[in-house]
Amino acid sequence: MGKPLEGIRVIDLSTFVAAPVTGRFLSDLGAEVIKIEPQSGDGWRVTGISYVPARFNEEENPVFDIYNTGKKMIAVNLKTEDGQKVFHRLMESADIFLTNVREGALKRMHVAYDDLKDRYPRLIFAQVTGYGPNGPEAATPAFDTTAFWSRTGFMRDLAVIDEETGIYNPIYPPSSVGDTVTAYLLLSEINAALYQRMTTGKGQRVEASLFHTGIFTMGTMQVTSQRPFGRVFPKTRADHAQLGGYYKCKDGEYVFIAAGMVQRLLSQMAPAIGRPDLIDDSRYNTAAARWENRKEFYKLLSDIFLTKTCDEWLQIAKESDFAATKYKGFADISEDEQAIANGYVENVTYPNGHTDVIATAPFHMDTMPPVSTHQVPPIGNDTDEVLESAGFTKEEIAGFKETGAVFQAEPKK
Prior knowledge:
Blueprint: E1 9-13, H1 18-28, E2 32-37, H2 43-50, H3 62-68, E3 72-76, H4 81-91, E4 96-99, H5 103-108, H6 113-116, E5 124-129, H7 144-150, H8 154-157, E6 160-161, H9 177-200, E7 204-209, H10 210-217, H11 219-224, E8 235-236, E9 245-248, E10 254-257, H12 262-272, H13 287-292, H14 294-305, H15 310-320, E11 324-326, H16 337-341, E12 345-349, E13 355-359, H17 383-389, H18 394-403, E14 406-407
Parallel strand pairs: 1-2, 1-4, 2-3, 4-5, 5-7, 6-8
Antiparallel strand pairs: 3-14, 9-10, 10-11, 12-13
């Protein structure tokens, strides 16, 4: 049995992370994905090799590869007449057009939805936007760090206020996380649209914005910060969920305990930490009481957790069946036994001999084998092959190169 999306063709006009991740997932699921870059390349290529301290280069760029593996890479100048000719020849057999280019630029290149929908009525036009297609900021440039993280309250409101000074430092936004979440959403919309097309024969526009995805992702906080709930953010550590949360341990590490169903957690955790009396202590055995006495309760728990190492507390949590984990760093993922056992990370070896540990695509289906990350070829590497398969002659392709409409990477020596 083949992969679920075999036979589907995608034209991918996207940059950076959100839409490229969707394209990578479509490729993983069996679609043919043809990525169009300008001759200068996707800006994320440069981002990947510019991190310091320096390690990556054009021959080893896992930050780019993880989001673009499996795609055919062509370089086309859509601002030229011949570039438009190439684009539309490819679109004749396309099922999906994927982009995160802003609307104004799409219109200037004559590849916006209104330019394509009547010409290609079966086309699924899939678009990532920053702040959505409408409103005063529809054309505002956006990244996940701005539209997904900072704009939705996460960066400010989940900072922790210092108990002594009342000062808090906003959290710095992580890179690509909001992009990836948005990519999941767009992928589900595309697959739903493909399914619907089976019965209607018609394509449609599907859109996912970083801002909207961020709002929904922060939905619990967005709802509970309003009346009638009125939870106030940011909070001190003592203000956060009692019993749950992070605690410093004897060895300087932190253990994090999921609050879950708090009353059940109290009955599990109180005996485990050597304080079964807390179950019947009227100062702490109801939500209202814990809130009223939150500072002293947090101090009590903090002192207890300082008496054992993190690993000791994790063993106690396991034996008492409540959810707890060690606070870990990004670098720890590469050596995480659980991640390795399930194939959630893989070793990818590059031609220069370096091996990098890279997260695998999170697909687990009986009908498809595991998918791996591979080195993405240079800008325009597959231009000749793709154009020839689209019916252009070698002479026509040579002419396109002369006019600057397409670019083919020189083979490596």
